[in-house]
Amino acid sequence: HQLNLQRFFHFSHFNKMQTECLDTILKTPENMLVSAPTGSGKTVIFELAMIQEMKALSPHDQVPLIIYICPNKALSQEKVFYWKEKFEKVWADFQVQECTGDVNFDGFFKRKMPTSGLLIGTPEKVNYIFRNWKSLRKLINNLKLF
Fold first, then answer.
1. What whole-number distance in Å separates Cα of residue 102 and Cα of residue 100?
2. Cβ(96)–Cβ(118) under 8 Å?
3. Model pLDDT, residue 78
4. CA distances from 129 to 59, 77, 82, 111 (A)
5. Cα(95)–Cα(101) distance, rounded to whole angstroms?
6. What contacts 124, CB < 8 A, 6 or more positions away?
7. What are the helix (H) ranges across the chain?
8. Tens of pLDDT along 33-85?
9. Is the CB of residue 65 less than 8 Å from the CB of residue 139?
């Protein structure tokens, strides 16, 4: 089904860097690494990739796990709030979770660990996930976008 991207983006056109990434994101399953200066629009590229992952789901598919790294807790909390507003209203099964310094993997989080949706974390916590992938296999197995 068609998705109105204007619902997600409130600007009239993509910038040059974003435009160069569009074909890869929208037309291929290829991996992509985007490295560009702060403020150049990398987050929009990530949002497009999230939208593509969600659009590709059939009605019976589990929502994939998507991980986004923020440099600090304050920015992580800002993104959690922003993306809850932006994506949870469109996809009821899409949950946005924070994974920062307050998360204790040995306690509640490990028992109730999200295996789908968007996990927004600081570098330290995301590093922990990947260093301990065997005990967090449930989490890693559904990872589609990083």
1. 6
2. yes
3. 92
4. 29, 19, 24, 14
5. 20
6. 101
7. 16-27, 42-55, 73-83, 108-111, 123-131, 137-141
8. 999 998 999 999 999 998 888 888 887 888 888 999 998 989 999 999 989 88
9. yes
Residue type, 139: L
Q: What angle do CA 103, 47, 96 make, to 5 degrees?
A: 30
| 115: three-class secondary structure by DSSP | coil
Structure tokens that stand for 125 in this block: 């916590």
Greatest alpha-carbon span in the chain:
46
pTM of the model: 0.83
Length of the chain: 146
Other Cβ atoms less than 10 A from the Cβ of 65: the count is 23
Residue whose token pair is 């992952």: 53
Residue 63 CB partners (closer than 8 Å, separation 6+) = 54, 57, 91, 93, 94, 95, 116, 117
Kindly report the number of other CB atoms within 10 A of residue 127's CB atom: 12
Find tokens 């399953």 and name the residue.
29
**Dist CA 71 CA 69 (whole Å):** 7
